[in-house]
Every structure is written in C-alpha cells, then in structure tokens.
C-alpha cells in the first residue's frame, strides 16, 4: 500500500502533544449455571455488592428498575443496558459519560494524538482514491469528548490546499447532552447555536479550523450525501441480547430482581424460547453462549445502504472478534472492571463487537475489509515512521518516554494492540472496477485501501 505523497508528508511532521496513560482492560465471565425465571434460586456472584454500591450514589435508577421488574418481570440484557446507559434522567451516558483519564475508561485518541492523525490520513487517502469528490461529510458515531474529531480536523487543516475545492463538513451523532457540551467546547470553543431552525440537527457551530459542525441524536437525521463514517468504540456500547444453550434448547439470559435480596439484581434464564431467541440464533451456531446486537446490525444496514447510494466509506474500530467469542459483557468504572449488575447508571457497560455479524448485516450492499488487529492497521498506516520522527524532534527525556509509553499502549498485543480491531465498509467499485470483467485492459489498477495493506514508502 502506497500512501499519497501529501499523506506521507504529514507523517514526517513535528507537532506532538503528550497523551494520557491508560488502564488495562479485561473480561468478566457469566456463571455457567443460571436460575430460570421466575423461579427463586441462589443469587449470582455478579450481583453481590449492588446495594452497597448503590448506596454510594442516589440509587434512583436501581429503584426504577426494581419497580419495573416487580411489575412486569425480568427484562432482556438489551433493555437493561439501554436503561443503564441512556435512561433520560439517570443513564450513564446522559448523566456521567466518564471518558478520559479522570473518568471511567480511556480510549486510543486520549492516549496519543498520533492515533487520530493516522485516522485523518486514512480518510484523506480514501477520498483521493475515490476521485476527490466535491463534498466530504465526516460523520462520527458516538464521538466521546471530541478528541478524535479534533485530531482529524487538524490533519484536514494541514491538508487545506488539497481539500480547497471540497465542501467539508462534520456531523456528530451524540445522544448525551453532557458529552455534546464537552465536544462543543473542544471543537468550537463553545460557540454553538442550539436548535437551529429548518435543520434536523439539534446544535451546530463552526470548528476552530473553520469547518461547519452539526450534532444529531440519530444517524437517520444526518443529511444524505457523499460521507465518510467513523465509529470508534461505538458499537461495543450498544445493547446486546445474550443467549445460553441448555438441555432444552436455546434460552435467553434475562435480568431480574433477586427474591432473597430485594435491592439486588441477578441473571436468570427465560423459561422458554423468546422472540429474540427465534430471530437471532443461527441454525449453524456451534457456541454454547452467544451475544447478538440487533441495533448494531440495523446501523450497519443503514450505513451500507447510504454508501451504496451516495458513496463514501465507513471505518469501525472497536473491541471485537470474528464470531468466535462467547461471554464478553463487562463494565468499567474508575478504570477498573465493574460488576455489570451493580449500581446501574454509574458505570460504562460494553460487549465485544461480533464483526462476522456486521459483515452479514451489510447484506452484500458494500464490500467489507477486516477485521484486522489495531497494531496491524496502525503499522500499515505508518505509525512507526511517525514515532521515529517525533522521537528525533523531541527535546526532553519526559516527552520521549511519553511517546514510547503511548506507542506501547496502542501497539502492544497484550494491551490495546490485539484488543481492538479495524473493519471497513466500502463501495464495491472501490475494490473492483465495474467493467473489469468485460474489459479487463480498460482500467488502471485500483489503489489498495490504506491501513488494510502493508505500507510501502516510495
């Protein structure tokens, strides 16, 4: 893979801002034996401590869930996650959303600005490979604090001469009022217009680099047009359904009140097949425990349809696997693993993305690439060259140590290097010329896709 000359020039730039340190990640495992709803049984270890932790906060969401469960019975894990993360009054993302070193978890853009720079180069490279269209909508799903978008916009500014004839705009899909305020301050300095008339956006502004930015609550609200989509640690926070294979067939894992401890939650199994069990379990499934995220499937379908119709591409970076893992549901609070059923609304809940499911849900409307490990993608994008240039131009030992530490966090297989994967949706014509079969000699070779092929600097 040969990066365009202008993109390679960016790798040799000098600017550097030290990043923050990150906390290691881990998994929590479900108990292999679950009670069947609504029968009473010994509570799971996973629910222990719920009352104590809830007492540390106001416990309003736990009380709300308890009333709901007593009135209507157990709920799916998906419904529990939706309440815990996006409940309008008490959800984690609507009230807390602790991204960053002082929050509950940290992401790659918070560790090193080089990560965001390389993502920005990827979009420029693909835009050039697709013929430099006259419009360029960058659409980010779940943009966190806005750090990744800021780093990408800095790359766009450095390549302003290349983009001079292109109408560039940024569109952020964000449900959290708190996070959208943080994004506005970071990206525009806080000068935004809420509820603009005659627009589907709920807020808009101008970036510090002069690019229009719009905020939406749903991807459906983003205007159609030639767009590049970005989903970094977005799909892992969408609600999942969990299923367990039993002697009686597949049963869905549900969340219920523990009858022995009224203010504590526990996992139970559905007494019979649920609609989700019938719709989401594939006949050829060989695993004994499966997690399915139908909301992720619906979003990928929407992205694939948009890319097929309007052009562009989508880049997904997330925890994940290719249809091999089983129980990956876990929580993070203060950079430590947190019991998913304890003190709902006070911790981030996440599950690994099943990229085989995303590939299937694209339904052939687009081509797909990946997943490949983060360390492979970043290496292909030239992170080693970028690191060497920064080390050569750093004037003090502390900066050099920070550079090496950040690089290790992103690339070490035992840290983020193998935990995160990159996956892309692209128009079919980006990989294969439409008339290649009929006139194989009529077209020049297509440029390889950056990041997914080995980097060659010429």
Automatic annotation (TrEMBL):
GO cellular component: mitochondrion
InterPro entries (UniProt xref): NDUFAF7, NDUFAF7_sf, SAM-dependent_MTases_sf
Top-level taxon in the UniProt lineage: Eukaryota
Subcellular location(s) per record: Mitochondrion
Span of the signal peptide: 1-22
Gene Ontology terms, MF aspect: protein-arginine omega-N symmetric methyltransferase activity
Biased composition (Basic and acidic residues): 433-442
Keyword flag Transit peptide: yes
Keywords: Methyltransferase, Mitochondrion, Signal, Transferase, Transit peptide
Record-listed E.C. numbers: 2.1.1.320
EC top class named in words: transferase
Region (Disordered) location: 433-452
Tagged with keyword rRNA-binding: no
Pfam families, A to Z: Methyltransf_28
Family: Belongs to the NDUFAF7 family.
Protein name, entry field: Protein arginine methyltransferase NDUFAF7
Annotated organism of origin: Poecile atricapillus
Taxonomic placement: Eukaryota, Metazoa, Chordata, Craniata, Vertebrata
């Amino acid at each position: 893979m040969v990066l365009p000359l202008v993109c390679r020039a960016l790798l040799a730039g000098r600017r550097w801002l030290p990043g923050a340190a990150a906390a290691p990640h881990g998994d929590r495992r479900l108990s292999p034996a679950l009670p069947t709803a609504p029968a009473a049984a010994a509570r799971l270890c996973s629910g222990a401590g719920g009352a104590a932790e809830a007492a540390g906060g106001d416990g309003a969401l736990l009380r709300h869930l308890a009333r709901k469960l007593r009135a209507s019975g157990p709920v799916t894990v998906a419904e529990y996650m939706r309440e815990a993360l996006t409940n309008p009054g008490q959800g984690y993302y609507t009230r807390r959303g602790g991204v960053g070193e002082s929050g509950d978890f940290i992401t790659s853009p918070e560790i090193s600005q080089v990560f965001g720079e390389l993502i920005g180069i990827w979009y420029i490279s693909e835009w050039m490979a697709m013929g430099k269209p006259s419009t360029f909508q960058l659409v980010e799903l779940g943009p966190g604090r806005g750090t990744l978008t800021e780093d990408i916009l800095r790359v766009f500014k450095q390549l302003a001469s290349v983009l001079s004839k292109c109408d560039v705009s940024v569109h952020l899909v964000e449900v959290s009022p708190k996070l959208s305020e943080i994004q506005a301050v970071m990206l525009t300095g806080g000068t935004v217009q809420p509820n603009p008339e005659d627009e589907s956006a709920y807020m808009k502004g101008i970036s510090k680099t002069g690019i229009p930015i719009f905020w939406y609550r749903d991807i459906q609200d983003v205007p159609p047009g030639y767009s590049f989509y970005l989903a970094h640690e977005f799909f892992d926070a969408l609600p999942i359904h969990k299923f367990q294979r039993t002697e009686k067939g597949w049963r869905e894992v549900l969340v219920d009140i523990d009858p022995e401890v009224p203010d504590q939650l526990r996992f139970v199994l559905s007494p019979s097949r649920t609609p989700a069990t019938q719709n989401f379990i594939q006949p050829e499934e060989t695993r004994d425990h499966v997690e399915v995220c139908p909301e992720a499937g619906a979003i990928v379908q929407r992205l694939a349809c948009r890319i097929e119709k309007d052009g562009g591409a989508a880049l997904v970076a997330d925890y994940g696997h290719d249809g091999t893992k089983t129980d990956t549901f876990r929580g993070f609070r203060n950079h430590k693993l947190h019991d998913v059923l304890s003190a709902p609304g006070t911790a981030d809940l996440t599950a690994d993305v099943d990229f085989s499911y995303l590939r299937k849900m694209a339904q052939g409307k687009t081509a797909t690439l990946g997943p490949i490990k983060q360390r492979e993608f970043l290496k292909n994008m030239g992170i080693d060259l970028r690191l060497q240039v920064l080390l050569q131009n750093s004037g003090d030992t502390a900066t050099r140590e920070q550079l090496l530490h950040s690089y290790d966090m992103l690339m070490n297989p035992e840290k983020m290097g193998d935990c995160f994967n990159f996956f892309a949706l692209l128009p079919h014509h980006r990989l294969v010329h439409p008339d290649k079969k009929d006139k194989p000699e009529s077209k020049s070779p297509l440029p390889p896709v950056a990041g997914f092929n080995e980097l060659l600097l010429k």
